[in-house]
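Retro notes (design track)

What went well: tokenization of the new backbones is finally stable.
What didn't: we kept losing track of which sequence belonged to which structure.
Fix going forward: every design gets posted as structure first, then sequence, in one message. First example under the new rule, 344 residues:
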């Protein structure tokens, strides 16, 4: 503690200004700060009293925890391009990404989903719909998800329409994985029952780090409904040692899409429930995780995404990852050519 005995009033005032200026110039050693915050939290100390916002604390503490004991970390995650201010994609566009298709359109429309499928049927549905919790990402742009805040009855009807559109595109015996929020489990399960889907099990993703929030218990897991369409036997491609608890490290930062999943996690599910060369449908493309996982596992991806900005992200991520060019189905132009024409 500095004792300012004998200082003049001017000296005291100058010191206050200098001390604050030095603090501003100093900045943080963010690695050390994150590590210290994580350690203090583990001592049951209330971090809310030290001047950081809840979102700042969430990001810092998650970084301080580092890699956990899950099957994979996020070091191998293919980079995700930034969300564009003005997208090149327009509603109705279909991007041909080699054997895959990405469409900007309505996931509740049977007609739109049929167009996306391009004459094929889905052998697997793997999707991560809006959770209806008004989720907002912890980034500078406060990333949000469309259709993520509806009245209860409206949301259930939305899910029924989504499931119905998927069901019309699925082969008998096709497996479905539907990620969801625990707080909306009733609607997700109820909508499945409404369309005749039988949920066989609920899988739980056990994350290596918590998601800080304003509830008493911080969330450290995410559920996923698992089942298959009636009419034929479903495919299982793994051994008999798999359990309903999936331990997998979460991405440390949701830099583009606020609820993005690890590519490895989706690939694990894809390889468990489909064969090489089969078709995987995802009606909520998000940051393109399903597309990258299908590219890695030699499956054929069909992605629908309502938001044109995220469509751009999906296409650019695939292009960066593969070194190939996506082509607009309507004109045969590459994504870069369309971007130059539409955006100048």
């Amino acid at each position: 503690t500095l004792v300012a005995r004998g200082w003049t009033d001017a000296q005291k005032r100058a010191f206050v200004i200098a001390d604050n200026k030095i603090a501003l110039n100093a900045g943080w050693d963010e690695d050390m700060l994150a590590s210290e915050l994580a350690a203090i939290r583990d001592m049951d100390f209330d971090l809310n009293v030290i001047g950081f916002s809840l979102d700042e604390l969430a990001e810092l503490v998650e970084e301080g925890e580092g890699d956990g004991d899950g099957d994979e970390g996020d070091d191998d995650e293919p980079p995700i391009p930034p969300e564009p201010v003005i997208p090149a994609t327009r509603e109705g566009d279909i991007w041909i990404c080699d054997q895959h298709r990405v469409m900007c359109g309505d996931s509740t429309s049977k007609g739109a989903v049929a167009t996306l499928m391009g004459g094929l049927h889905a052998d697997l549905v793997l999707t991560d719909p809006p959770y209806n919790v008004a989720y907002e990402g912890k980034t500078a742009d406060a990333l949000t998800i469309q259709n993520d805040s509806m009245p209860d009855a409206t949301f259930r009807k939305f899910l029924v329409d989504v499931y119905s559109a998927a069901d019309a595109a699925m082969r008998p015996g096709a497996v479905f994985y539907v990620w969801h929020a625990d707080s909306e489990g009733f609607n997700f399960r109820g909508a499945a029952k409404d369309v005749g889907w039988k949920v066989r099990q609920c899988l739980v993703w056990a994350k290596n780090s918590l998601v800080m929030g304003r509830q008493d218990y911080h969330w450290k897991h995410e559920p996923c409904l698992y089942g298959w369409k009636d009419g034929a036997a479903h495919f299982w491609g793994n051994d008999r040692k798999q359990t309903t608890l999936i331990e997998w490290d979460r991405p440390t930062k949701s830099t583009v899409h606020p609820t993005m999943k690890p590519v490895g996690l989706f690939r694990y599910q894809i390889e468990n429930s489909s064969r090489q060369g089969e078709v995987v449908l995802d009606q909520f493309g998000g940051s393109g995780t399903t597309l990258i996982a299908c590219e890695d596992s030699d499956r054929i991806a069909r992605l629908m995404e309502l938001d044109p900005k995220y469509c751009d992200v999906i296409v650019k991520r695939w292009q960066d990852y593969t070194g190939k060019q996506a082509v607009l189905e309507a004109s045969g132009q590459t994504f870069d050519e369309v971007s130059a024409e539409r955006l100048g």
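Added context from the reviewer: Confidence is low (pLDDT under 50) at residues 134-145.
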